[in-house]
Amino acid sequence: MAAEKLALAKAITESLRTAMENDPKVIVMGEDVGKLGGVFRVTDGLQKDFGERRVIDTPLAESGIVGTAIGLALRGYRPVVEIQFDGFVFPAYDQIVTQLAKMHARALGKIKLPVVVRIPYGGGIGAVEHHSESPEALFAHVAGLKVVSPSNASDAYWMMQQAIQSDDPVIFFEPKRRYWDRAEVERESIPGPLHEARVVREGTDVSLVAYGPMVKTCLEAAEAAAAEGKSVEVVDLRSMSPIDFDTVQATTEKTGRLVVVHEAPVFLGTGAEIAARITERSFYHLEAPVLRVGGYHVPYPPARLEDEYLPGLDRVLDAVDRSLAY
């Protein structure tokens, strides 16, 4: 099949469709995922094609949704759960971190829970409170969970396939403000392992590492920096647990400078772990300290202020300049 240009949201839809066609044990469940097709229409048409027993509209009860998915996984199913918005996941946090993440170890490897928890996350859409959170570090901190986020339609398609096929639970963060960004999706060849970072732009002066919604911002920053004669390498991390530190180390030692960018608050964010680990691994290769760019350590602000809160082109370029100034 030839490559097809799809929006990121549509790529996830097609990935779910493919998984459901290939395996009758794949079940989609969540609030409004059936008749409505999800608030972002990511599951649009799936209930019509696969029926109400495989695409299940659930009550507004996130803890119950995840708890039910755990029970289904124990019975041999592969549930794909949608949490409608990032800020709605916390009623299910107990189920995810004390049951879903721990069952494999608790059973000494005899029980597997192949559950995918889909979470639209991040800001940039002018939403109200509890609709623009970036809680990925909370889940990456929990042993037993895989945590990933695609930045483009091709990765969205293939990473969802790989997440569903995983025997371990996967928290799948979908960058909602990139849902409508379009890219070529080749359905015949897997682009790489689920947890492998990828260099998406070559450079020699400084490395930018990002994931999910900030990859596009970093690519735009690299383009702007190039106009000023600066060569910026951009790495799409793709996975926050596990993290592909080898790729991050390689780009750091190539350029001598590293800036980590994410929407989530800088304080105790994913960038903190990357900065600490790369400082340990590559101390004698660094020409500057590892810098971090992210949100502020405050509750996510009202929509009219989110442009001030979110890391944008200027804040990324400022970090590039500060790194090059050492």
TrEMBL record:
GO molecular function, one term: magnesium ion binding
InterPro entries linked to this entry: THDP-binding, Transketo_C/PFOR_II, Transketolase-like_Pyr-bd, Transketolase_C
TM annotation in the entry: none
Keywords linked to the UniProt accession: Oxidoreductase, Thiamine pyrophosphate
Lineage: Bacteria, Bacillati, Actinomycetota, Actinomycetes, Kitasatosporales
Enzyme class: oxidoreductase
Pfam families linked to this entry: Transket_pyr, Transketolase_C
Residues covered by the Transketolase-like pyrimidine-binding domain: 6-181
EC number: 1.2.4.-
SUPFAM superfamilies xref list: Thiamin diphosphate-binding fold (THDP-binding), TK C-terminal domain-like
Protein name: Alpha-ketoacid dehydrogenase subunit beta
Listed cofactors: thiamine diphosphate
Highest taxon in the source lineage: Bacteria
